[in-house]
């Protein structure tokens, strides 16, 4: 059913103003009474009038604000992500409205507040959200992109690194490096990053017919990670390798083992991390780590977000996307490595 | 000249609505037409009517957004500051609208944009602003608080650590620790932090009749800092102590000296930093550093900001404040220390 294109004449009639007033109402900086402008915009919306890009953005009343929730900034990974996404938003004339919150309920309370602002989109970095809030966003036409976390909210897009493959790769790498007592230091157990990394790691060990020797929980916290690793090392049969679920914990573990227990890495124990953050690359640590492609994640996040915002403006449907970006195991000095290993290491095709 | 208190009857008359409509217009959630509400609020503003706190916030149309500009997040000091200030804002029902920008002109362009949003206040962390923008904020009734930077904008409040005293203390500390060839590694030279730290450092050396042995510029950047320090160490008479203008540079310098030059800290050269960030406290670095009291700075920033916002709402004048918060020289293992030195070190009363 083709409809006649709505013109400014229709809008002028509907709003009870002159055609020139409609034109001025859609010209930024033009002289027009606020009340007239308001009436014109209402009429335009009700008729579906679309004069041009600028006018569209006026009609849709975009706030040019992107809500962004982050759980904690002490892990180096997140400041990088926040700055990168903020820079991408600014390039497009948008700015980030920040919500700092822990994991779980507190985060959901803050996200409720985010919706009180007229945000055009919502980015969750390291924060999960309840299905209820995801649904509220969806109903309000606010696209949601989760970075480095997934949840079962079907309406939210998800951008992640290759957590499961990374865990599996590290398992093969440690077994082929000759380790016999392999341990896992978990992050926050209910997070998707920990779940996926651990699942991949356990699957990789099983593929090699190796059982996990020890496990502790570091909750992605430096102090808890150090304590957990020290406790594992003080057992009668300490691990000869520990996969720490992120670099933030791996750094704390290396410091504690070296300085509190006088141990050598990797001579006494190999340490492998995840994320490949800046400090993991510092020569003092030189941590073997599965990389998260931060720049690619930032780009995928902004593209997914702004495509969805454009679709929302056009009144078109937008399918939530799930994008997994490839990482690689960067081999450095904190681990005993498989024979013939280069700067990076990948599962062989048959594995 | 006492004025009769403006009542809701006056507002109703001015707006041409019933008194009950005025009441409903100021009751959140009450049923009232948007146009009526608008007319009542305009009348209330023009008469200076102040029904109560909630109504005041409606009248003044606070956006409950605080603009916050940060220059770069890779130095650990800033993520801590951003998170702390965001948490403080959230406690008061406000949220941070983030502006990421480098130093200088780019920052000023972003700050121009900040004013296009209806922010209630502006926090600049490690960003200076031009007098022109400061004046625009002042004219618009938007309080500005600068954290860890000062500029000559008289209308902006300034919250800093004790940069000059810190530099002076470090000079005395190094001389009394027996160092003979003392060097300075500068940050970005046009920043107030570098200027004040260096000024204090030079004054302290002069008080001890010591001349600066060498100087390089690291621009608060890890790579440039490492290069500058390595170059100073490769001269015929290398320094026996380097004061790095912040810890972010001191860490990079320690890594480069140890791993690229095979030097020992402090045996071959003492390293002192500034800020006392998390990684400076890691046992691998254990950097002697003059502390910036981050928590106190966060608190002073939010108090100054929200007092000024309240004043703006009440139509009262608010004097810009300059608050210098005390730090202390935290003595760790990266420096040869004066005899009898404890965990901290301060200038003696006579100094």
User: Which radius of gyration of chain A do the C-alpha atoms yield?
Assistant: 26 Å
CATH level-1 class of the largest domain in chain A? Alpha Beta
Helix content of chain A: 40-55%
Most extensive chain interface and residues per partner? A-B, 35 and 35 residues
Count of discrete structural domains of chain A: 3
Q: Proportion of β residues of chain A? A: 15-25%
Q: What class would the helix/strand composition of chain A place it in?
A: alpha/beta
For the report, how would you describe the main beta sheet of chain A?
A: 7 strands, mixed
Shape annotation of chain A: elongated
Distance between the termini of chain A: 56 Å
- Note the run of SSEs of chain A as H and E: HHHHEHEHEHEEHEHEHEHEHEHEEE
Per CATH, which architecture of the largest domain in chain A? Answer: 3-Layer(aba) Sandwich
Quick check: average pLDDT of chain A?
87
Across the major sheet of chain A, the strand order is 7-6-8-9-10-12-13
Note the quaternary state here. homodimer
CATH homologous superfamily title of the largest domain in chain A: Response regulator
**Low-confidence segments of chain A:** 53-59
CATH topology of the largest domain in chain A: Rossmann fold
Number of helices of chain A: 13
Q: Total number of β-strand segments of chain A?
A: 13
């Amino acid at each position: 059913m083709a409809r006649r294109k709505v013109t400014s004449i229709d809008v002028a009639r509907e709003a009870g103003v002159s055609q020139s007033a409609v034109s001025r109402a859609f010209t930024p900086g033009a002289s027009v009474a606020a009340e007239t402008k308001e009436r014109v915009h209402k009429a335009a919306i009700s008729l579906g009038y679309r004069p041009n890009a600028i006018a569209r953005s006026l009609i849709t009343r975009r706030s040019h604000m992107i809500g962004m929730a982050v759980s904690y900034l002490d892990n180096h990974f997140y400041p990088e992500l926040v700055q990168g996404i903020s820079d991408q938003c600014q390039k497009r004339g948008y700015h980030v409205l920040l919500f700092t919150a822990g994991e779980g309920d507190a985060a959901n309370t803050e996200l409720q507040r985010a919706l009180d602002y007229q945000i055009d989109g919502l980015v969750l970095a390291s924060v999960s959200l309840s299905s209820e809030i995801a649904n509220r966003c969806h109903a309000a036409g606010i696209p949601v992109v989760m970075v480095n976390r997934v949840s079962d909210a079907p309406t939210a897009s998800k951008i992640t690194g290759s957590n499961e493959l990374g865990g599996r790769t590290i398992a093969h790498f440690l077994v082929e490096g000759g380790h016999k007592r392999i341990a896992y230091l978990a992050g926050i157990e209910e997070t998707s990053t920990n779940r996926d990394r651990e699942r991949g790691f356990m699957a990789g060990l099983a593929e090699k017919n190796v059982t996990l020797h020890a496990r502790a929980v570091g909750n992605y916290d430096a102090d808890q990670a150090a304590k957990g690793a020290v406790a594992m090392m003080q057992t009668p049969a300490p691990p000869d390798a520990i996969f720490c679920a992120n670099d933030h914990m791996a750094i704390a573990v290396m410091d504690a083992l070296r300085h509190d227990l006088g141990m050598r890495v990797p001579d006494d124990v190999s340490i492998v991390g995840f994320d490949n953050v800046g400090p993991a690359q510092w020569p003092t640590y030189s941590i073997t780590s599965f990389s998260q492609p931060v720049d690619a994640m930032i780009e995928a996040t902004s593209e997914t977000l702004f495509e969805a915002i454009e679709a929302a403006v056009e009144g078109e449907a937008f399918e939530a996307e799930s994008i997994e970006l490839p990482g690689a195991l960067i081999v450095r000095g904190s681990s005993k490595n498989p024979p013939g290993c280069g700067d990076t290491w990948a599962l062989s095709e048959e594995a």
